[in-house]
Amino acid sequence: MKEYRTITKIAGPLVFVEKTEPIAYGELVNIVLSDGTIKRGQVLDTSDELVVVQIFETTTGIGRDSGVRFTGETIKMPVGREMLGRILSGGGKPIDGGPEIVPEKRLDITGAAINPYARGMPADFIQTGISTIDGTNTLVRGQKLPIFSGAGLPHNNVALQIARQAKVPGSTESFAVVFAAMGITKEEANYFMADFERTGALERAVVFLNLADDPAVERIITPRLALTTAEYLAFELGMHVLVILTDMTNYCEALRQIGAAREEVPGRRGYPGYMYTDLACIYERAGMIKGLKGSVTQIPILTMPGDDITHPIPDLTGYITEGQIVISRELHRKGIYPPINVLPSLSRLMNLGIGKGHTREDHKKVSDQMYAGYAEGNDLRGLVAIVGKDALSERDRLLLEFADLFENRFVRQGYDEDRTIEDTLNLGWDLLATLPVEQLTRIDRDLINKYHPKFRAGAKKE
Amino acid sequence: MKTEKTKEAKKGVLKRIAGPVVTAVNLDAHMYDVVKVGNEALMGEVIKIQGNNTIIQVYEDTSGIRPGEPVINTGLSLSVELGPGLLTSIYDGIQRPLAVLVEKMGNFIERGVSAPGLSHTKKWTFKPLVKAGDKVEPGAILGEVQETNIVHRVMLPPNVKAGVVKTIRSGDFTVDEIICTLEDGREYPMIQRWPVRVPRPVREKKNPTIPLITGQRILDGLFPIAKGGTAAIPGPFGSGKTVTQQQLAKWSDAEIVVYIGCGERGNEMTEVLTEFPHLEDPKSGKPLMERTVLIANTSNMPVAAREASVYTGITIAEYFRDMGYDVSLMADSTSRWAEAMREISSRLEEMPGEEGYPAYLAARLSEFYERAGLVETLNGAAGSVSVIGAVSPPGGDFSEPVTQNTLRIVKVFWALDAKLSQRRHFPAINWLNSYSLYLDALHDWYDKEVSPDWNKIRSWAMEILQKEAELQEIVQLVGSDALPESEQVTIEVARMIREIFLQQNAYDAVDTFCDMKKQYDMMKAIKLFADLAYSAQLAGVSPTQINTIKAKNELPQIKFIKDYKPELAKIEKEMDAEFNTLRSAA
After folding, report:
1. Which candidate among A351, B79, B101, B309 keeps its CA 20 to 30 Å from the CA of B166?
2. Residue B8, Cβ neighbours under 10 Å: how many?
3. Per the CB < 8 Å rule, is B16 touching A387?
4. pLDDT per residue over A340-393, tens digit each?
């Protein structure tokens, strides 16, 4: 392999190389330092005169005298069944002291788009045991449902609880977990690892760790390695895979850093204009394929800078993912766990996975009715602050109480409490029963007669 | 093929590759020529010419391509194939059938595979409608093919000279076989090709007068769009843009539906693909898929093809319009299209306009929406293309460039509201911010087809809703008990309009589609309640008592009943009786 010593410029994570033979776009590059260390990078721009290489690690030690080797191929990743139970670096190297991965296959990490015509429709209800997700923002296999959180909120606990409890009722297969950490602290990583070990989840997990002090640019490839692994496990080995990506905000920061180094025209708040497409190429790697057994379900976690949901990172994410679970600082302060605020939360695929044959026929309508009641009750809190409880009409007073009950009984649950979907829906009915029946305008009479505690009990007496 | 440049293919050499934009040298090319890039012959389009450099946007992933590889100019502009076989198809942004791509390259989209838009082997039964000796003008209908339950009218291309038919054949043909020969020796098959960036010509554009009935109460009832009109649905994520678009694709009374999934979610397209074949057209009873053409270019498919997908869609829509059909086109989402333009523009290092979008954003948007319209086609028929574009403003902020430039062009604005969707008020269309500029043009139609008093009832409902918004401000401060009694009644009536009329459940088998008659009856029932309530209040009945009327609580159930008339009549009768009791007690 030819080695060039024609580096003319190094700026941030970018290295500019001149006078090369024709180099392919996207090619993997090894930079050889004078002490023999090898740093890896990828071609971002190639022409007759100049090749721009983005280095995945720090550029410390790279100089005009460094050698540049073009490998002639795009970045491929060795994958295999053995990866389960292993801990790898953000760049895909084993860091658990175990042996190198023996590849069964080498796959391109950018991954091709699933042909929409070949996609299977996600419809298998995943029971997470958390009422606010199962009942009102249902997750299904093949969905990508991010957790929007803020600094200092217990999003990691929620993600872990989901990973621990997620199952498809009636199916014995458990989920394989692919966990990709991007720029999180060692402490956070330890927390995840300890929980995986405690519950035995590590055996069926593949962990990628890019920690806060690892090179930021490496974060660009970490989620791609994780998803390539997930796709292999799902579509070639037929497993159901749950992918947890945390923290996507760190990923986007790395993207911005590279954009700035390339002197690109920045989009909103300095993030590159192609961030939507770039994020889509990560998030869209979830789903099912007709005729294949496995599935990839994604739970990306991101911290909203300043708790601002309109910030470009949560905003673009929300446009790509199939809903979002929003962690609320207000509920957290009230001491409610999991502090999931259902109002801005949403699961777009919910309707495919609930109802008769999936969960229960009353699911959709109970959920809508609870949403409506909680939203209205929540609004009334503002009013009460001004006029006091006494000035409220009877209807409003009940709604206000409903909102409190909803938070304290429906939202609040234990870190290890695993509620079945029946429990969740019955709990919903118990809360709705505190409102007058004629106020339940979103539920048709038949369902009320069948499930409403008042009528259910009445029916028993007959 | 006679319509395009037929010069020889020219060859050039790649000089630079940077993502989806590549540069070639020594290539003889014209703007928007389609070229084949590299050894794998990836499809691309010329978007800039600078000295000896030709800048090309490539519709496929360019990883692995090197400088020095060849570029071949086909000399043709980006065109679509038009003819029998379009309906029920699912294409990517450059009219490659996705089903064929699965056969050719498996479950994932690989590159360098070409696939024609129409099947060139399938035979269609062609029935001529002209005979030898007939004079045919450009765009004339030569004959027809029963494509699905829709009749496909085979036309002379719109940009050729008139002529006299020498022979016309009848029987089973592929799209390439000659079906018509003219006296001057010109021969025509069923297929025609049309460059996507050029609007197909029409005889005359007209002003729309008929609404596009969608079965959605807030749209048909309050903010209607006309056949041949344009509408925008902007809204933050999670406010229900896609559900609304899909409802329109399902239930609008257009004869042909073109649905463009432009840079959106893969699973959502799958939902459409799985659902449409099982849904019935409320008019014909046939599967909705039979009248539908889908274009799916998901967000992780190449960005340049996303840019092209909108043009591919509207060209197909225009072709069916030329047959004399009413076509509705849904583009979800035009923001992704604009972002594709921005991405390509920034790779070209063009001077950016607002928020990094290219300066020609406004021009591109208006050119696109202007391709909608009610027209007299070249063959004298009336056809229309209605365009409904979803807009995804960042952070739900309507002041951003794509929303603003769109609003300057479209006539109907359906403002989605995150607050409404959070409380599960669906469709989450804000009734105060939305508008339709077609109300005057459609006034007569509603008078004649719905009821002479519909327009009045509509204004009444809008007034109540407007009034409620004002009253709510007071209620927020002092509570509802502090309002005068008549205004407490107004608040209750407005709540009924919102919860009964405006809220509609897209997932309920009955409520998902509501025809104009039912809409009228429902609104009329609410109006009846309002009239009775106001007069009772004047007669001394208190609002608290009015709120105890049982019959009004039955009213929402009407939405979910198919043959609602007997039930509605019963409710109205009870309502009247209850009010009488209250009044006699007062």
Report:
1. B79
2. 8
3. no
4. 999 999 998 998 899 998 999 999 999 999 999 999 999 889 888 888 888 788
The distance from CA A227 to its chain's CA centroid, rounded to whole angstroms, is: 12
Q: Which helix (H) or strand (E) holds A240?
A: strand A240-246
Q: Do A312 and B266 touch (CB under 8 A)?
A: no
Q: Pick the residue of B265, B350, B567 with the most A CBs within 10 A to test the interface with A by mutation.
A: B265
List the single residue in B270, B299, B477 with the smallest CB-CB distance to A386. Answer: B477
Residue A433 pLDDT greater than 70, yes or no: yes
- Residue B5 scores a pLDDT above 70: no
Answer yes or no: is pLDDT of B254 > 90. yes
Nearest-angstrom CA–CA distance, B308 and B311: 5
Q: Are B76 and B339 in contact (CB under 8 A)?
A: no
C-alpha distances out from residue B102 to A116, A159, A363, B262, B409, Å: 9, 35, 36, 20, 39
ipTM exceeds 0.90: no
Nearest CB neighbour to B300, from listed A113, A118, A344: A113
Contact A267, A210 (CB under 8 A): no
- Read off the DSSP letter of residue B94: T
Amino acid letter for position B311:
Y
d(CA A364, nearest CA chain B) in Å: 9
- Collect all residues with Cβ–Cβ distance below 8 Å to B305 and sequence separation of at least 6: B59, B60, B92, B93, B94, B297
Structure tokens at B185: 């020796």
Tell me which amino acid residue A74 is: T
Contact A444 B550 (CB under 8 A): no
Is A267 in contact with B342 (Cβ distance < 8 A)?
yes
- Residue A290: closest CA among chain B residues belongs to which residue? B107
Nearest CA in chain A to B296: A116
Q: With the C-alpha atoms ordered A175, A178, A181, A185, is the resulting torsion angle positive or negative?
A: positive
**Do A43 and A51 contact (CB within 8 A), yes or no?**
yes
Per the listing, tokens 């009013």 go with A383
Structure-block tokens of residue A215: 């090179």
What are the tokens at A429?
């009915």
What is the enclosing helix (H) or strand (E) of B390?
strand B382-391
Within 8 A of A274 by CB-CB distance, chain B residues are 303, 343, 346
Residues of B in contact with A318 (CB under 8 A): 236-238
- Cβ–Cβ below 8 Å for A280 and B102: no
pTM: 0.90
A119 contacts B296? CB cut-off 8 A: no
DSSP letters spanning B242-294: HHHHHHHHHH---SEEEEEEES--HHHHHHHHHHGGGSBPTTT-SBGGGGEEE
Torsional sign, CA B12, B16, B17, B18: negative
Q: What does the pLDDT read at residue B155?
A: 96
Which residues are paired to A53 by β-bridges?
A15, A43
Q: Please give the interface size between A and B, counted as residue pairs whose CB atoms are below 8 Å apart.
A: 231
Cα distances (Å, whole numbers) of residue B282 to B94, B147, B242, B385, B509: 31, 19, 21, 20, 12
B377, pLDDT greater than 90: yes
Q: How far is the C-alpha of B87 from the C-alpha of B83, rounded, in Å?
A: 9
Residues of A within 8 A of B270 (CB-CB) are 116, 119-121, 287
Calculate the alpha carbon distances from B497 to A396, B424, B460, B548, B555 in Å. 19, 16, 11, 18, 11
Is the Cβ pair B63, A44 closer than 8 Å? no
Please list every residue in chain A whose beta carbon sits closer than 8 Å to the beta carbon of residue B267. Answer: 119, 121-122, 142-143, 286-287, 322, 349
Nearest to A284 among B237, B266, B343 (CB): B266
CA distance B43 to B87: 25
In order of A399, B272, B478, B491, the CA distances from A391 in angstroms are 14, 49, 8, 17
